[in-house]
Amino acid sequence: MKPARFAYARPETLGEALALLTKYGSDASILAGGQSLMPMLNLRVAQPAILIDINDVPDLDTIAECNNRIIVGGRVRHNDALHSPLLAASNSLLVHALPHVAHAAIRNRGTLGGSLALADPAAELPACAVCLDAEIAAVSQRGERVISAADFFQGVYATALEPDEMITRVAFPVLDASWHVGFDEVARRSGDFAIAALALAAKVIDRRIVDCRIAFAGVESHVRRLSEVERALAGALISDLPVRTAASEILTNVIEPLEEGQYPPAYRRHLARALLDRLLTRICQRVYA
Questions:
Q1: CATH of the domain at 117
Q2: Could you count the other beta carbons within 10 Å of the beta carbon of residue 104?
Q3: Residue 224, C-beta contacts closer than 8 angstroms, at least 6 positions apart
C-alpha cells in the first residue's frame, strides 16, 4: 500500500520545527526514526497533512550526565543508547530493555522520543521511563514543560503531549549501587511485540527490599507503576518466598489486562506473575552471589 499525499518539511533548527508544529498542530506528524510512522502511513492509519523531518535539528541526539541524571535526547537512536558507555557504566535499565526492542535494523533508526510519543502499550521504553520516574521535556513555541513519565502515558497511543509539542529530551535518574534493575518480556518470537514485559528496579540493603518500582508493558492499556505490589514487597527479604507469593496474588487482583481475543486477560495475568517472579529471582541470585 502507499500513503496518502502529504507535504514534507525538513527544518534545520528547533525553532523552525516548532513553528511548523504551531501552524499545523494535529495535522502534522514528526519524522525522526519513522519505524512506526512509515508503516502507519502506508496502511493509512495515519494521514497527516505534513511530515516534519527533525533529523537536521541539532542537539537532539546526545546522551549526557547532569546533576545525577542521564539526559537522553529525543532523537537518540535505540542502538546508540544500547551501546552508550555512559548508560552502561550507570547500569541503566535502558541497557537491559533495549535488546528486546524489535531487531537491530529497526534499532538503528528508531528513537527514544518516537517510542515514548507513540505510547504503544507493548513498547519497552515507556515501561522503563515509568519505572524510573523519568522526566520528559516537551517543547512548543509556548515554552517548555517537564512531564513526569507517570503522568505522560494516558491510554492506548495516548499521551499528555499537546499537538504543538515535541519531545526534546528525557531525564533518567542515576541509581546507586544498592539498586538492582532488570527487564524481561514474553513474545511469540524474538523481536515481536511483547505480550507482556516487566521493568523492575529494587533497592536492596542487607538483603532486604527497601524500595521497589514495578511497571509492565503489553499487559494494560498503558504503562503505570503498580504501587500496591511495590508496597507488598517493601521491607521484605529478597529471598522471602511467602512475601513474594503474596505480592503476586495482589498483582493478580490489581492488574487490568487488555481485552483482546488473541491473548485473554487470564493469560496476561499469568505472564505478569511469571515475569515478576523471574526478575525477583534474578535479583535474589545477584544479592546472594
A1: 3.30.465.10
A2: 12
A3: 130, 150, 153, 215
CB 95 within 8 A of CB 85: no
Contact 172, 18 (CB under 8 A): no
Q: Three-state secondary structure along 240-259?
A: CHHHHHHHHHHHHHHCCCCC
Cα(169)–Cα(113) distance, rounded to whole angstroms? 7
Residues 255 and 167 in one domain: no
Number of structural domains the chain divides into: 3
pLDDT digits (tens, 9 = 90+) for 252-281: 999 999 987 789 999 999 999 999 999 999
CATH number reported for the structural domain that contains residue 28 in this entry: 3.30.43.10
Quote the cell numbers at residue 275. 515475569
Instruction: Residue 221: give the domain boundaries.
Output: 179-288
**CA gap 231, 264 in Å, rounded:** 27
- What is the helix (H) or strand (E) element at residue 202, kind and residue range? strand 196-205
Q: What is the pLDDT of residues 12-28, one digit of tens each?
A: 999 999 999 999 999 99
Does residue 204 share a domain with residue 160? Answer: no
* Phi, psi at 198, each rounded to 5°: -135, 130
